[in-house]
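Subject: two folds for Thursday's group meeting

Dear M.,

Sorry for the delay on this. The cluster queue was jammed most of the week, so I only got both jobs back this morning. I'm pasting them in the order they finished. Each block is the input sequence followed by the predicted structure tokens. Could you check whether the formatting survives your parser before we put anything on slides? The first protein is the one we discussed after the seminar.
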Amino acid sequence: MNQNFDIIIVGGGAAGFFTAINIVEKNPNLKVAILERGKEVLSKVRVSGGGRCNVTHACFEPNELVKFYPRGEKELRGPFHQFCSGDTIDWFSNHGVALKIEEDGRMFPESNSSQTIIDCFLETSHRLGIEILTGQSVQSIFKKENYWKIETQNENYIAEKLILATGSNPKIWDLLHTFGHAIVTPVPSLFTFNIKDARIKELPGVAAQVTVKVKDSKLAATGPLLITHWGMSGPAILKLSAWGARILHDRNYQFTIYINWLNDVETQDAEQLLKELKQQHAKKAVSKKSPFEFPNRLWESFVLASQIEAETKWADLSKIQLQNLAHQLTNASFQVNGKSTFKEEFVTAGGIDLKEINFKTMESKLHPNLYFAGEIVNIDAITGGFNFQNAWTSGFIVANAV
């Protein structure tokens, strides 16, 4: 028996639900179903943002917003002019969910719970009569003359239009490959760096504002860095991992980074600063108090790494010791051996080649009536609500198109 629908959406995540709801709100007569392979829907939404759901980012200018996407920057410019962060806020507000902006620009539901977003999607879907079919793992997709046939392990579905919102699901990518779509091989993005180094061993939890560069590459990022039990994390590291997803994968996650703990101060200028400190604080012990805007424990670690003993006074510093210290502060090298997943925000770089998608409609250029929403395409962003914004925008555009 075939079950017939006007539109079938494969994938019961953020992009799938947003697309479905927007389609039926624009056209209540359409019969729409969401197929989800798991037992429950929206599971990634539940854990995102530490269980609070980082819905979007308070960046309201499309041309600025695109800069947070290592892959998709050029392609998203048009879509963001149609549906941007401000539209997201309005949409959720109209559906009874108030959002708030945090200091770093990330936006969350005022309730501080991802359950608010899940409830909003589920209640709206039920009200609109969208069928949510769980435990439906797609086995094959057939293209007929004017409809699509989708086979799951226990059902057959027929629909005029097919929307794929399956995120980074290799099985669906393989199916699309048989339809002639080029798939950019997925590699991890948004990961933290594993580093074993005496300088940071005793400092988990210490944070600083830094500039980080990857040796033998153009990769660089500025922002907060967090020392962890296994190495380094924080926005600066996550940015590097996103922009460097391919390069670092090709290096098998073995590489060297240089950190400037004074952000943009050059090594010579740092030496000059230290010479001035040497005169001002001649009688004080060097390691006692950090003269810069980062924690004392971190400063002590640099002092020791520069071969300066704990009790040494500023006046007694040799030229070599000053140079060593300036180097530790502005150009400290650390060896990275491997990566760790950042919380549960597993994001991949890769997916359907962007050249094969019409970004005015999110429709496949190869197959009419086949649409894509969310992370299934080769678009991904740094952390901060940007990956969700891509889900909302692409879902909105698909809904408009169909």
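Second protein, same layout:
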Amino acid sequence: MGNIIADIRQALKNSVDEKTKSTGQKFFKEEIRFYGVKVTKVHEIAKQAFSRIKDKPKKEIFALCEELWKSGLNEETYIACDWSFYIRKDYKPEDFKVFEKWVDLYVNNWSSCDSFCNHSVGEFIEMYPQHIEDLKRWAKSENRWVKRGAAVTLILPARKGMFLKDIFEISDILLLDSDDMVQKGYGWMLKAASQAHQQEVFEYVMSKKAIMPRTSLRYAIEKMSQDLRTKAMEK
């Protein structure tokens, strides 16, 4: 197992793009560690490397993912995200504990949070919707990335019109959070939900607009019609 990780790290080192390396930090408020490889190239490396391990048991693949997560290097976390999503057909309910551990211990910026939660965790919740109750527990965490994860996990299901009641419940929990990463996260979730339930999300926003942070409000109404956006933004 160690050889493939070493090979991935060498491939990433060989693929550093100087412009990406020099500009990567500007997208983050917190300091991040990264090689400076274009995201498209990272996904290519992930796909090529996965062909070597695709027949291994899920437990071994998860162990490799965790080794990549532990590095703290952004590109390695993207590969871990890709690999865990590639084996989504093999998810079982007990895998939630693994995913929760990764979010709590290793996610340290919006990019790795969104990459992992949008896809792997979101797919898991669609497969095992009873675990949406765990997302409500995440929303009460002291970890900003766990809280953001509670919301962004539901982006893709929300676009399909799923989990509207739960989306409003999670929004209620996060409503007054002072962290802009959390505010943007649940605002994005509401925006996604508005694509299938525009009127319901509009009514929710209007009922909370007096106390909802403007950041969250602006995100939530972004996809709505002009007249609804105007009404929502009125003082």
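Two things I noticed about the second structure. The chain is about 70% helix and 0% strand. The chain has a mean pLDDT of 96.

Cheers,
T.
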